[in-house]
Amino acid sequence: MSLFADTFRRDIRLGLRRKGQILMAPVFFMMVSVLFPLAMGPDPVVLKLAGPGLLAVAALLAALLPLDTLFRDDDADGTIDLLLLSPAPLSLYVAGKTAAYWVLTSLPLLAVAPLMMIVLDMPLRMAGITLCALFPVTFLLNLAGQTGAALALGTRTGSILLALLLIPFYIPILIFGASAIDLARNGLDAGMPLFLLWALLAVALPAAPLATAAILKGLNE
Amino acid sequence: MAVFSGQSLSCVRGQTIVFENLSFTVGGGGILALSGVNGAGKTSLLRLMAGFLKPAAGTLLWNNEPFDAPEEKIHWLGVDNALKPDLTVRENLSYWARGGDTDAALAKMDMSAFARAPARYLSAGQKRRAALCRLFLSPRPLWLLDEPANSLDAASESKLHALVKEHAAGGGMAIIATHNPQAWHPDNILKIGAAA
Amino acid sequence: MSNALFALANPARFRKVGMPLLWVSSAASAALFAWGLWLALLASPADYLQQEAVRIMYIHVPAAWMALGTYSSLAFAALSFLIWRHTLAGLYIRAMAPVGAAFTAICLITGSIWGQPTWGTWWVWDARLTSVLVLFFLYAGIIALADAFENRERGLKAAAWLSLIGMVNLPVIKFSVDWWNTLHQPPSVSSFARMVEPAVDKSMLTPLLAMAGAYLFLFIALAVLRLESEIMSRRIESARMRRNHG
Q1: How far is C164 from chain A (nearest CA, A)?
Q2: C161-194 confidence digits (pLDDT tens)
């Protein structure tokens, strides 16, 4: 496990030493959330209808934005080569990296989510269920995202290519996440989509790092 | 003592043949220098030994058995230093330590004074020395070094020569890709791509 | 001889089998298209509800089958490329992803044309249409990824991985879209499922199967042709490289 902990600690430390980058994801999330009312008009009825979907889409875009840099440095400076010659499994490194990435980019996003709920005219009593949906949503987005980032490693058109690759995989996450918030807003039972989100997370949590590690190993050959 | 050898190795990238039919043997205590012009395949051969590349033909043997578990046997120093500019030298090193003695490793390449400096403040030669410190974090029998003396000053270079000799004297082996093979006093020099 | 050198030789053997197969399947496809289109457009009855518009089904439904079938073949090729390192399987993904995308596009476009007279709109967010649209995105991703690398082999590998992961994800995507559709059921489309999956009359079944056969042989012919051209372009590239190396 120590490779997981070491990688997690190292990446958090690296992230904290570049403070500007940490703020980028939540600020981007807030800006996208603000763009929608500006585009559609401030009508509370419209915002009420669209709010949950907007939050999910904004979270998706914020997760996509910095993704192409995830493995780029470690690949370019030879870190991944060295890791391939380390006795610990590479998937632990991938998992540690994803966990750190989640803490650095998604956790601040969850922190500002209630603020965005106010902006989008959603009642704050829904904050609990919104976070309960956004937590697995952001984690799933990151898990799918790291696999995509490994696949696109070494291409010239990183970000756009990643969006193209990942959107099919993001669709189920988007659907379940937005529906959970939307059902709750209508006073309906959001148990089904929430259960599906957490079930997907339970599958992806071990599967995605293993697949990503295999890709990193295979592509290097 | 262990013997590491490769028999009639070929390396193909895409549809290009990088090299064909190379063989080598290094025994414990041995130093093998790889020489050849740019693009001859020195780095490819090293990467093949480390298992990053699969040989198109030929086999790697360890004590005459198929070579496996390279992660227990090899210390790797690539062309790149794998240093994070925002971490200090010590932090960089301790990521790879896994219980090894970071301070002792720093002292080997005279980097103790820079332990707390962020790697981005180091000169190119100091960065190379910081990367070389990784070799001393844990004992592994086989060192694969790709142009290890790049950017090193004369004093550091002869220090490194001595350390490699010391590693070999202790029963280890070193395979070094270099443009200056004689400087390492190798037991053998493998010339790659002599035809080119 | 080594594995990789064998793999390079493999395409030559492929050529021997491929050329006759190309001619046979092209001829079969042309014949079946002629017969099937004649049956579909002229010799079969119009539908009681949809009248003449139903005839586009004979183009649309086999395209949908081929869109899914091609994807499964990509995933299978990806598996044999990644596990057994068959070079030809890697080239197959590169060669056939655009063909699969084209079948998917035909399915989407004809579906949309069919929708206009039957539902009164070009596009509805029906679960099937949405799933097919996502399938099209998947194809687009594979095509883009296969071409994005300087190193061709790396592109092949990445595209193979993506095809494989996409295959695992396809049921999840399908399920999510179906579930989403029942959540937001628009009233006008509820009859769609009944339109495509009624007990098909025998007078419609024959042209449908003829067209499906025509598509299948077209697929085989295109596979041979495009694999052949992939092999050729690799050969040209390696010849160029050898010349540059002097």
Answers
A1: 11
A2: 999 999 988 888 888 888 888 776 654 444 444 4
Buried-state track B151-164, b at ≥16 Cβ within 10 A, e below 16:
ebeeebbebbbebb
Tell if the CB–CB gap between C3 and B56 is shorter than 8 Å. Answer: yes
Q: Is the pTM of this model over 0.90?
A: no
Instruction: Say what the ipTM of the complex is.
Output: 0.89
In whole angstroms, give the CA distance from residue B79 to residue B96. Answer: 18
In a domain, residue B196? The reply is no
User: In this complex, do A219 and C158 lie within 8 Å of one another by their Cβ atoms?
Assistant: yes
> For chains A and B, what is the number of CB pairs under 8 angstroms?
61
- Residue B109: give its domain's CATH number: 3.40.50.300
Taking contacts as CB-CB distances below 8 angstroms, the residues of chain C near B58 are 2
CATH code (residue C234): 1.20.120
Query: Which subunits count as partners of chain A given 3+ CB pairs below 8 Å?
Result: B, C
**Neighbors of chain C by Cβ distance (3+ pairs < 8 Å):** A, B
The parent domain of residue C125 ranges over 23-245
CA C45 to chain centre: 29
Number of folded domains in chain C?
1
pLDDT over 70 (residue C5): no
Tokens of B189: 């020099």
Residue B88's domain comprises 3-191
Cross-chain CB nearest to C149 (options A155, A172, A215): A155
SS3 (DSSP) at A78: coil
Helices (H), A65-106: 72-76, 79-84, 90-101
Q: Output the six-digit token pair for A8.
A: 């997690």
pLDDT digits (tens, 9 = 90+) for B31-90: 999 998 888 888 999 999 998 888 888 999 998 888 888 888 899 999 999 999 999 999
Q: Do the Cβ atoms of C162 and A172 come within 8 Å?
A: no
